[in-house]
Amino acid sequence: MSNTTGEKSYLDMELLRFTTAGSVDDGKSTLIGRMLYDSKSIFEDQYEAIEESSKRKGDENVNLALLTDGLRAEREQGITIDVAYRYFATPKRKFIIADTPGHIQYTRNMVTGASTANLALILIDARHGVVEQTMRHTFIASLLGIPHVVFCINKMDLVDFDEAVFNKIKADVEAFASKLDVKDLRFIPISALKGDNVVNKSENTDWYNGGTLLYLLETIHIGSDHNHIDCRFPVQHVIRPQSDKYHDYRGYAGRISGGVFKPGDGITVLPSGFTSKIKSIDTFDGPIDEAFAPMSVTFTLEDEIDISRGDMIVRDNNKPEVSQDVELMLCWMNDKALVSNGKYALKHTTNDVRCMVKSVQYKVDVNSLHRIEDDKDIKMNDIARVTLRTTKPLLFDRYSRNRVTGSIILVDEATNETVAAGMII
Amino acid sequence: MKSYNLTHLKELESEAIYVIREVAAQFENPALLFSGGKDSIIVAHLARKAFYPAKLPFPLVHIDTGHNFPETIDFRDKYVEKIGAELIVGSVQESIDEGKVVEEKGYNASRNGLQTVTLLDTIEKHKFDVAMGGARRDEEKARAKERFFSHRDEFGQWEPKNQRPELWNIFNGNKNFGEHFRVFPISNWTEMDVWQYILHENIELPMLYFAHEREIFMRDNVIMAKCDFIPQKETEQTENRVVRFRTIGDMTCTGAVDSDAGTLEAIIEEVSATRVTERGTRADDKRSEAAMEDRKKQGYF
Fold first, then answer.
1. In what order do the strands lie in the sheet with A232-234?
2. Residue B265, exposed/middle/buried by CB under 10 A (0-12, 13-18, 19+)?
């Protein structure tokens, strides 16, 4: 019966979040447009609306970038200012694209889009090979700990689908990527415009044995992208029903940031150090046998101990680092430059503390990846290594080990704006 | 080794519950905007999950234009009673009576835009510092730029070009006195996700979403429900047709679609085959290319 199979297939679907970065003319919009169009995710009224707008602006072809450029200013200036989120699904997976502008002045948007991604899609024009932008995007993907990076060597039709061109670019990427921390690199020769190896396998690249881009997106293994080893449960909210039925109920609600928790597990609460055992893992749909990242659940414990938001429940034998001095890579995101020795509010998991910027070690040239040690003015879009001192100890893991417990944001205490994102080293 | 994977619906559910709990933790006086439409019903359902076994730690707030489908109001009242929540109603009629807004005139008059004033008044009157809603990024291109935590200034306005960056799952709800936030827990859900979740969780909906026979008339190629709030032109003939609604807003600006989908399964099949967005039936979005962006800047939901 079609209903049963329909229901079954959607209950098996996984979610893949990927980010794309690119600038005008590299074919990014064409590629996204093609994936959306070929997977029937563009609706007729949307298509008609952009067809109409394209005509009005005098474009010869339907400009698929208009689909994602949602703000009036973006349409007027013909540029993507902000991160745009696009959604599409195939029968196998559901996809969230964080589409970001690729120019250097939008580094902060790329960082934002990359922060939640499992995979980064980087386009390389086959005619131009590896350029500054390729290095920058790969560096950001590596900095933000994106586990999978897929390089689409685009416009292969313009280089006669030449295998040697593809291999040269692949070797160049591998050469500089070896200095970075990217776990999984993939290369696909495509033509976004003609459709080669995007959704359908190309007849022009018989020397290429890999799958199409869509096949890769549908099948790449993402189950290990979360940390399932180090048990981390930042307490978000304490649930006290205050009803007759649940008079003594005290539940600790939160989202698992790492590891697998089971009822009966011995746990330690940080920073207090009190120990207890998990009595139950509760959900609205009933108690469950185990909970892992990124599930939102509620723990009850065997003992009554004082626990509040910002505390972290961990296993006795595997604890995070606890320190007031934190080393991190910081991406600055605000017009107002970093004030050295300045004080900021810091948000980390469910914790709010204050911090002081103690020192700036170096700034990174995001194009060459060189360290700049003589210029320590950290301005919008700069990436730098800094040391912070916090008012209370943070309970953290290295970002490369856990993206949830290893990340922080800084907030300006006067304007309340988010001014920086940090990855703990 | 055992693989620990969540399905896409479970992952979206977990993300939304996390966001709703952040709201309860970071703000003093939250509200959940509840229109009786499927998206706000889902958010209410997720909120119940987030705080189980406790009750919702915030009220549901309905901005009643006075032009709602009676079926919606009926559903709203029963739902609120069922889950034991508190309901606060902000009335557009009252705003009109108090002279705070002036009703639009003419055949296409709608109270949709007037809601903004009533909404902001209700927020101010009850001192809500955050209002959660069921808006989704896939609905409309201005909404695609929304954050989960969306800041509003002391006039309730949205500044789309100067939004706070939002990274990982760290949400910055810091604000100054008089400002508030709008929070959208199901930002990452698509229309299809919503329907699949409704089916999976067996969530009750107003009957308007299912095919039924109703008196309708055609205007600008949109099927409108016959009602007392829309002055019909002489050329607009009333007829009986089997229709359903893909979205539920005011009777004055919500169009129906021809459909015989009477079950959730049939609706999912219809949605997966359809080639028009759900807001394609909404007259309020069609006023201009930036209609939604402009309304949102002023404080529209």
1. A232-234, A312-315, A266-270, A275-282, A296-301, A251-255, A237-239
2. middle
**Contact between B24 and A237 using a beta-carbon 8 Å cutoff:** yes
Residue with tokens 């730098």: A384
Which tens digits make up the pLDDT trace of A116-171?
Answer: 999 999 999 999 999 888 888 899 999 999 999 999 999 999 999 999 999 999 99
Tell me whether residues A295 and B169 touch, CB distance under 8 A: no
For residue B197, which residues of chain A lie inside 8 Å, CB to CB?
Answer: none
Helix, strand, or coil here: B179?
A: coil
Asked if the Cβ–Cβ distance from B165 to A112 is below 8 Å, we say yes
Burial of A117 (0-12, 13-18, 19+ CB in 10 A): buried
Distance from CA of B239 to the nearest CA of A (A): 26
Hunting for tokens 């697998």 — which residue is that? A260
> CA-CA distances (angstroms) from residue A27 to A71, A95, A122, A191?
21, 20, 11, 9
- The residue with greater pLDDT, B154 or B26, is B26
Q: What does the alpha-carbon distance between residue B102 and residue B7 come to, in Å, rounded to a whole number?
A: 48
Residues of B in contact with A37 (CB under 8 A): none
The residues facing A407 across adjacent strands are A423
On the CB side of A194, CA atoms within 13 Å amount to 16
From residue A306, alpha-carbon distances to A273, A409, B57, B264 in Å are 11, 27, 21, 46
Q: Pick from A44, A49, A84: which is nearest to B145 by CB?
A: A84
- Using a CB-CB distance cutoff of 8 angstroms, which residues of chain A are in contact with residue B196? 10
Residue of A nearest to B25 (CA): A237
Show residues of chain A in contact with B163, CB under 8 Å. 82
CA–CA distance, A214 with A89 (Å, rounded to integer): 11
Q: Are A295 and B6 inside 8 Å of each other by CB?
A: yes
Q: Report residue A99 as tokens.
A: 């589409």
**H/E element holding B134?**
none
**pLDDT on residue A69:** 58
Q: Measured between alpha carbons, how far apart are the two ends of chain A, in Å? A: 53
The sign of the CA dihedral A211, A67, B184, A89 is negative
Query: Which chain A residues are closer than 8 Å to B51 by Cβ?
Result: 237, 239, 253
In one-letter notation, the amino acid at residue A75 is R
* Predicted TM-score of the model (pTM): 0.91
**Interface ipTM:** 0.91
CB pairs under 8 A between A and B: 198
